[in-house]
Amino acid sequence: MFRSLSGRVLILTGIFVILAEVLILVPSVAQFRQDYLISRLERAQIASLTLLADDMIPEDLEEELLRNAGVYNVVLRRDEARQLVLSSPVPGPVVDTFDLRDPTMSELVREALLTFFEHGDEVIRVIGNPVREAGLLIEVTMPTAPLRAAMVEYMRYMVMISTLFSVSTALLLFIAVRSFILRPMKRVIGHMRAYAQDPEDGRRIITPSASVSDIRDAEEALHEMETQLTSALRQKERLAQLGSAVAKISHDLRNILTSTQLFADRLEASDDPTVKRLAPKVVNSVSRAVNLCEATLAFGRAEEPAPRLSLLSLADVVGDVIDGERLAVAEEADISFAEDVPASLRLRADPEQLHRVLANLVRNARQALEATGRAGEIAVSAEESDSQWLIRISDTGPGLPPKAQEHLFTPFTGGARKGGTGLGLAIAAELLRGHGGRLDLERTGPEGTIFLICLPKEVGQVAENSAAAGDAPA
Question: Residue 173, Cβ neighbours under 10 Å: how many?
Fold first, then answer.
């Protein structure tokens, strides 16, 4: 029990309540001592006034008055004259004097502690103001044993009351904590354990129902997390199944494309000028398709392979991509292409992977323009600085929808057009990370969209990021 939260709450509550009672008990005992002494002064004053009213009081009556007052003698100062009104034998010397006319709380507490911890019956002098201004000052001598006994009795009573109060408060708080906090928490824990047994079962997702706002906030956060996790697990399972299917399709497609590549090689021997001009592009397209199938098969075992870096002419790669997209433009579409790449610009990259990146971006732009049914332009420009190469792919399309911007590089959720999978941007971003670079959305809106490719010139940085991309798990 003591290791549980409820047990510790019970213990701590009892400790804190007792501590609070102790802090209250000490001043209350000091106040009790002051009231006790004041009552003795008042009794002594009444006895002295009785004697002043009749000087012929017998000695035995005087002793009875002192005994009832609980003092040895009484000194009353009236009209600046100090007068011993009542007296009896004092059993010992006066060990201390206490002035009750204007004490501070710290003095009362200190004097109460001294009285409480003293041993034996000693004689003390107490000075105070007479009641109803029956003089200037009253002074008595009295024993400490009755005072200490009264203080002990009062403290015993207060401790008993404090203990009862502490236990009652702790039990009530314990019941309240169990009812309003621990039971809802145990229900949340039970839901978590049930969900952990089968996280793909949507029926096990918690339904927030707590009446305590803080616990309900926790339930709502847990509900959101479990919902997202269940969706992610389902998507992961679908992706695994899709990956297995794609691997099988890519295997068969690679065999088909290999045969097509052999047939395409013969096109170069044709006498038709158009065929001669287009045959190399067909051969290159088929070769890239074969390489893509092989890379897809490898993707089932690991992430994209590390890039094989070499110096290449960016203008040649961009021209090849643009030529391929011009052939893919629909007849009814009015789409133009522009290239602003210096012929002398050479950068360090993997030719096949860079071609895939540019092809994905330009294809996305072409499909977005075709979907609008309006005329538009796609432009590819490049520049370089001291530390990096910059490539921009811009279009005059309608811009990316908000959902696509929110999940821009997430597979199957960042599609920029209806029916799109979002794989193109995800693959492009992954390939560029392998180069040590990045893909950024520079601008999007009704006036068009611009994607920015940044490739570093530092060979060490490229190699480091390439190795990290090649070692990353699938």
Answer: 18
SS (H, E, C) 217-262: HHHHHHHHHHHHHHHHHHHHHHHHHHHHHHHHHHHHHHHHHHHHHH
Q: What is the 3-state secondary structure (H, E, C) of 297-347?
A: HHHCCCCCCCCCCEEEEHHHHHHHHHHHHHHHCCCCCCEEEEEECCCCCEE
pLDDT value at position 94? 87
Tokens, residue 393 = 């792919």
CA distances to 14, 50, 378, 399, 440 from 450, rounded to whole Å, are: 67, 109, 10, 9, 9
Q: What is the mean pLDDT of each run of 10 residues along the chain (474 residues)?
A: 66 77 83 88 77 60 73 76 72 86 85 80 86 74 88 87 79 79 82 84 82 82 87 75 66 62 64 71 69 58 71 94 85 88 94 92 90 91 94 93 79 53 76 91 92 86 48 39
Token pair recorded at residue 340: 């602003």
Q: What is the pLDDT of residue 178?
A: 77
Q: What is this structure's pTM?
A: 0.43
Q: Which of 171, 160, 157, 161 is nearest to 14 (CA)?
A: 171
Side-chain half-sphere CA neighbours of 21 within 13 A: 20
The closest alpha carbon to 140, from 80, 70, 93, belongs to 70
Residue in 376, 357, 358 with CA at minimum distance from that of residue 368: 376
Given a contact cutoff of 8 angstroms between Cβ atoms, the answer to whether 1 and 178 are in contact is no
- Compute how many other C-beta atoms are within 10 angstroms of the C-beta atom of residue 359: 19
Kindly report the number of other CB atoms within 10 A of residue 259's CB atom: 10
DSSP three-state, residue 392: strand
Residue 389: the pLDDT is 96
Spell 135-151 as b/e; 16+ CB within 10 A means b: beebbbbbbbeebbeeb
For residue 438, the cross-strand partners are 454
